[in-house]
């Protein structure tokens, strides 16, 4: 059921994907892009001894996404908002284009042609973003939970990492979220021996410091086989492999001890794959430099995102002054989101 780049609607799907991505107001509150962002989010979570971790997985998300419902969610996101909708399309025009791109997709199986009547086609550029918008919409129902709500809910497409308090009823929570939508079924994976894997990160409990540690996770089927040094590939690819492994270790492992253990294992694995020591040292050195630059750039972005505070002083004439202050804040937030507007009042008349 894969939509190949040469198919009749692949170019249209790619165009619509770019249109939706560039006009999307913001990501979901739970969304993470990769393992590095996940580690950054859970770093610093305290009171781990009073918590329990679980993973939820949406069973066969892509093939179960109701495409017509996902199209309506996408259109609402683009057209039901204060900012102007994307040009040059009206809502009916864009809806028709989305239907052409993702509905009734033909595919071949055992030399027979079939039509996929629901779900997003594998390989379609629109698949990931429609699935994410659909999940972002239904997970808003978490806001209706007054009790038994997870402390942490982090999602990467169809994989969800949660933290609960130990006294919470996780089975009841699972039963409730499985009622969110008839097409969506969540399965659960619980922590074992105080460890739980999410994506390629292994999260373990640090009982001494009462927090979580993170390191690299490898599946039981892992063979430690990488691109062999003797393979007929460009030398730059082989150095790039080492750099990538180094960046992964330095950004995922949370303690120096875990980093050193992973670095030692990585060097042994690379030597087993035929890599000479001088090339490994070069790749490690370059990977460390790239990692420092990434961390420095991330810190600069965080500092630039800090809102500058501005104070206004208004005379207080009663409720009208409060309404005026709210309007000023609302307008400034819309026009200058980087500013934090604070409004103070002073008395209009004083007795001396």
From TrEMBL:
- Where does the UniProt annotation place the signal sequence? none
- Residues in domain Reverse transcriptase? 1-216
- Residue ranges annotated as transmembrane are none
User: Do you know which CDD domains this protein is assigned to?
Assistant: RT_like
Write down the PROSITE patterns for this protein, in alphabetical order.
RT_POL
What InterPro entries does the record point to?
HTH_animal (IPR058912), RT_dom (IPR000477)
> What's the name of the protein?
Reverse transcriptase domain-containing protein
Q: Which organism is it from?
A: Didymodactylos carnosus
Write the lineage as a comma-separated list: Eukaryota, Metazoa, Spiralia, Gnathifera, Rotifera
